[in-house]
Known about the structure:
Layout: E1 2-7, H1 20-27, E2 32-37, E3 50-51, E4 61-62, H2 64-73, H3 79-83, E5 89-100, H4 103-109, E6 114-118, H5 127-132, E7 136-139, H6 149-160, H7 170-174, E8 209-210, E9 213-214, H8 217-221, H9 224-242, H10 244-249, H11 254-269
Helix pairs in contact: 9-11
Amino acid sequence: MKFEIVTIFPDFFRGPLDYGIVRRAHEAKLIEISVHDLREFTTDKHRTVDDRPFGGGEGMVLKPEPLFKCVESLGVAPRDRRLRQTVPESVILLSPQGELFTQSVAQGLARLARIILICGRYEGVDERVAEALADREISIGDYVLSGGELGGAVIVDAVTRLLPGALGNERSAQQESFTAAQKIAGGGPDSTCASGGLLDYPHYTRPAMFRGMAAPEVLIGGNHEQIRRWRRRKALEKTLRYRPDLLAREGLSEEDRKLLAEIELTKSTSF
Ligand code: SAH
């Protein structure tokens, strides 16, 4: 997978992509990351990338010319072919107005061979970039950041860990929060149930007793069926508490419904 990042702050990426899984994926040549300095695609002596907004208003706007020049210099496939998905390439504009970045968007991107990430700054980017240069706009959440760089790093990270070979253990990616149910290749102990689109279950490690807080007995007992059931219940509990929207979307099993009824019952009797 090749990531190419277009930014006015190329040094920004020295840190965040140099650790852990992304670093190892880079070293193993699973990914390649090129950072392009937008100012190199300007023609005036001040290397101007921004200008005042037409119609007045606050702040500055990233000009279209350097962005078009930069992306065109990368030799990407024509936009209509990218939009028809006949080439495994995508040009993405980071923008709070874009479609929300989710695990399933990350899974879609992980199937591509090349992703170009355009990072906005200031008040944003001339709209013609969204209309005619980028294939899509992606937002990493309902909040406003000062620039697209953090969003770009988020996408690189989330997509990289989905690439085959990036995680030490292929199964971990299938069992994490938000990951829709799928058959785990080669089975695997029943206690490591996939999240099935819910939030992950809670994790504990040694020591079993820490400052008077005990790790749950059931996890130490070694009964896989009990552990699986406990984890599923905890995943449902957490999802119900923080993300009931995910519960509504998932096709819950008979067992899930029973566990949810138990959870509701415990809630109404413990006060
Ligand atoms: N005026 C814009 C905000 C611009 S923020 C608005 O109100 O919608 C400047 C740049 O930061 C944007 O062009 C975009 O590239 C980036 N950015 C800000 N918030 C973001 C988010 N939630 N997701 C992705 N990129 C974001």
